[in-house]
Design goal:
single chain; alpha/beta; formyl-coa transferase, domain 3; 2 domains; 6-stranded parallel beta sheet
């Protein structure tokens, strides 16, 4: 596998850091999860994350598989010594403390790179390690709001307020950026021998995902007027339409060939020229026509109508429907282990060295004794660590 021989220390909790580390584990890295024995990974808790399969929460199973767990209290001297010893042997550290916490603990990049100059150290935080917002606490929704994305996430019909986005986009975007940054730093290390510090901001990950909607901001020094913008409801071919049975159809492509296929199929070619043009007022008559037209048939009838036509479209399905799709199973994005538990597959696909997913899950500190035997520690420190299990 691509990452065979790579050792990753995962100090992070919840989603962004653990998801990045799990991708590395799926592709062959040895990932050692460091957990505080008195405050372990929160996603283990069925009280906080009630949906379970088998004896673990669904979220824990799909962010922590294939890792080892060592239980260390990093506020104690033995725990800190153990982490320093781990850092000497590691290639990558992933942490998601609030800025300044790692330094107070004595385990920041400066401290760990002293014992291992080749270490790649990745910090994921809400707003980054510098700047006036560095100390603001925030999780996903607050960072997405700060990036201006909740304001443009509204129904194209009516004047509804901002809508919570259905997936934690800043968590996952920052996770993927963290993985990208780590891989870049490792690639450079191969020629210089030196690691680096990777500073990932959840907020900035959303900003960086916004180039296609920034025309009014950069070009006009103003906020977008939603119904004049192509991705916010002002384009007939990038829109959502209600069906007769209260389901929805999404159109998702505005190239001329798709526009022609739709309106010629509906016997209204007079809309083609306007809808091929810029979003906004020229599209509004076509949008009104499509809203009325889609309400004349059920979702199933529209699915039958669209089949075989060269148009970008999809029914708006439930999350349950999406994960039941034959395509999802056939591509391995959902699979079951030997105990019948469901897993999210790897979305990073290689022909020569595909992911080999280990579905085993670590107990809290399950590999502590084994791992500390590999480290340069005194017997006193080893006993102090084991006594806290």
């Amino acid at each position: 596998m691509k990452l065979d021989g790579l050792t990753v220390i995962d100090l992070s909790l919840f989603l962004p850091g653990p998801a990045a580390a799990q991708i590395m584990a799926d592709h062959g890295a040895r990932v050692i999860k460091v957990e505080n024995p008195s405050a372990p990974e929160p996603t283990r808790s069925a009280a906080a994350f009630p949906w379970q399969q088998g004896d673990q929460t669904v979220m824990f199973r799909n962010t922590q598989r294939g890792k080892e767990s060592i239980a260390l209290d990093l506020k104690t001297e033995p725990g800190k010594k153990a982490l320093l010893a781990l850092a000497r042997k590691a290639d990558v550290i992933v942490e998601a403390f609030r800025p300044g916490v790692a330094k107070r603990l004595g385990i920041d990049y400066d401290a760990l790179s002293e014992v291992n100059p080749s270490l790649v150290y990745c910090s994921i935080s809400a707003f980054g390690q510098t700047g006036p917002w560095r100390d603001r606490p925030a999780h996903d929704t607050a960072t997405v709001a700060a990036a201006g994305i909740l304001d443009v996430t509204r129904s194209p019909e009516g004047d509804s307020g901002p809508a919570i986005i259905g997936v934690p986009i800043s968590d996952m975007l920052s996770s993927y950026l963290a993985l990208s940054g780590i891989m870049m730093a490792l690639y450079r290390r191969a020629t210089t021998g030196l690691g680096d510090f990777v500073d990932i901001s959840m907020f900035e990950s959303v900003l960086a995902a916004s180039p296609n909607i920034l025309g009014p901001v950069f070009g006009g020094d103003q906020a977008p007027e939603r119904l004049k913008e192509r991705t916010h409801g002002g384009n007939a071919m990038l829109n959502i339409y209600e069906t007769a049975d209260k389901h929805f159809i999404a159109l998702g492509g505005g190239e001329h060939k798709f526009v022609a296929a739709l309106f010629e199929g509906l016997d209204h070619p007079e809309f083609i020229d306007a809808v091929t043009g810029p979003a906004g007022q020229g599209h509004w008559p076509a949008i009104d026509f499509l809203r009325d037209t889609f309400r004349t048939r059920s979702r199933n009838e529209w699915e039958a109508w669209f089949t075989g036509r060269d148009i970008c479209w999809s029914p708006v399905v439930t999350l349950h429907e999406a994960w039941q799709a034959d395509h999802v199973w056939e591509r391995g994005m959902r699979f079951r282990d030997t105990n019948g538990n469901d897993h999210v597959g790897s979305a990073v696909r290689f022909t020569r060295e595909p992911a080999h997913i280990c579905t085993e899950l670590p107990g809290i500190g399950a590999q502590t004794a084994q791992i500390i035997e590999e480290l340069d520690l005194t017997e006193t420190d080893r006993e102090a660590i084991l006594d806290r299990l």
